[in-house]
Amino acid sequence: MGEAKLVSEEATLPKRRNTRFASACAVLASMTSILLGYDIGVMSGAAIFIQKDLHISDIQVEVLLGIINIYSLVGSFAAGRTSDWIGRRYTIVVAAGIFFLGALLMGFATNYIFLMFGRFVAGIGIGYALMIAPVYTAEVSPASARGFLTSFPEVFINSGILLGYVSNFAFSHLSLHIGWRLMLGVGAVPSVFLALGVLAMPESPRWLVLQGRLADAAYVLDRISDTPEEARLRLEEMKSAAGIPSDTPTANNIPISRTNRGGSGVWRDLYLHPTPAVRRVLISAIGIHFFQQASGIDSVVLYSPHVFEKAGISGDNALLGMTVAVGFTKTIFILVATFLLDRIGRRPLLLTSVGGMIFSLMGLGIGLTAADHHEGKLMWAVGVCFSSILAYVAFFSIGLGPVTWVYSSEIFPTRLRAQGAAAGVVVNRVTSGIITMTFISLYKAISIGGSFFLYAGVAAAAWVFFYGYLRETRGMTLEEMGKLFGFSKEEMEEEDEIVKTKEMTTKNGTGEAAAAAL
Predict the structure, then answer these.
(1) Which helix (H) or strand (E) holds 147?
(2) What is the 3-state composition of the chain as percent helix, strand, coil, each rounded to the nearest 5?
């Protein structure tokens, strides 16, 4: 018994070691997400001082805050192709470099037009970052810890938001002309550390296999898998998915034709002629990204000083101090979520999260409506608004926030993953841009309380969609997702000819499948 116990303990050592290395890779890649988080957090407070210094209207403030989401589309569209071309690792360097330049331009902005140009450049970097971080993390993570590790981008978004809030509070005491410029310019600092950290990261093994670099992929998998056996199985699955014969020696690198590399024919297979399974995956990814933003999270986080002011709180220091509490709450609960994703699963967390968001938004709507119809400060309404916002960001961070990035990065087949994930990011950013660029106009049209009742209705629709359409993916390998999303037997055979996944076998219809692959 003692000898058996010793053997069992020794067998677990590689798992702990390799999981730590995969975790380190996930942390470094996910640091790209801190760029978006910092921009969201810092702009919520900096906008107060920018409006005073540059004498801009509420409409211009809306556009300034929300336009970066539209600008990020350029980066998101380019990131899928770029990562298939130069690899996931160096795409992260591109993201960091572009955001670094954008942050400097915003920090040195002398007028509204100059500031908008800086946000255009920073937005491209954010688009790159949002797409590549979850894709890289999903591809280096073992199945046993993929939910935990792939939630890291959302952890760093929340950490960035908190840092942005703290930056607001720290620099708010400086002169009006200098304070907001330092708030924005300091955002260049994380980019430098990120670019240096990439030097310690391996390339994605799936991308290496798609390039025919089998020896390099095998080396990386040995370092990031739970066990040597898992590393071997993962490599075989990746070779099959790339159309590489299973008997190809892994000690060699082999030439891969352009048609087998990532990016070729992806647009056709995703949008023009998707199979029912691919269509379901695409709708799932787009749907979860849409509802993440349409339920109002950026309105709460980006406009929290405005919301607290409408609730009856006055004074820049008080408003910024309360936003720090919001950022701290988001960060704490996203950390809790990282430990639950692989234990509880995606669907239970998602449904619980959105259910809590619905009631929190209703409470916020009630509190703001009461405050809006009462002259002076209504203390119970202030308490309800503050507690409802904290509850809302807590429920969001424990489910819908991290699950969106985890789920959308893991459900696509290897060949479609980079550009499929990019499509989700595009929907995410467009929706966020619309929400943030219309919030002030919306609450002026239907009242501040009515805005959050509207978001509660959207969240209720999201709960119905998630309950009826999304499948549980906890613990599955990335190569097992096809069966989960409803491939028929015939579709499995066709998919076997197209992506040659290990689990699917070809028995009939080889000619039709080969023709479809062309």
Answers:
(1) helix 146-150
(2) 80, 0, 20
Please state the pTM of the whole predicted model. 0.72
Choose among 110, 135, 117: nearest CA to 54. 110
* DSSP-based three-state secondary structure for 141: coil
Is residue 33 within 8 A of residue 156, CB to CB? The reply is yes
With contact defined as beta carbons under 8 Å apart, do 355 and 416 qualify? no
Per-residue tens of pLDDT for the chain, all 518 residues: 444 443 343 344 444 445 678 778 878 887 888 888 898 889 888 998 999 999 999 899 989 988 888 898 888 778 878 888 888 888 988 888 999 999 999 999 999 999 999 999 999 998 888 778 777 887 887 766 766 777 777 788 888 888 988 898 889 888 888 999 999 999 888 888 888 888 778 888 888 888 888 888 888 888 888 788 888 888 887 887 677 777 777 665 666 554 444 445 677 777 877 878 888 888 999 999 999 999 999 898 888 888 888 888 877 778 888 888 888 898 899 888 888 877 888 899 999 999 999 999 999 999 999 988 877 778 888 899 999 999 999 999 999 988 888 888 778 876 777 778 778 878 988 999 999 999 989 999 999 999 999 999 999 999 999 999 888 877 666 556 667 676 545 544 444 544 443 333 323 333 333 233 22
Q: For residue 278, what are the contacts with CB-CB under 8 A and spacing of at least 6?
A: 269, 270, 413, 416
Phi/psi region, residue 314 (left: phi>0; alpha: psi -120 to 50; beta: rest), is: beta
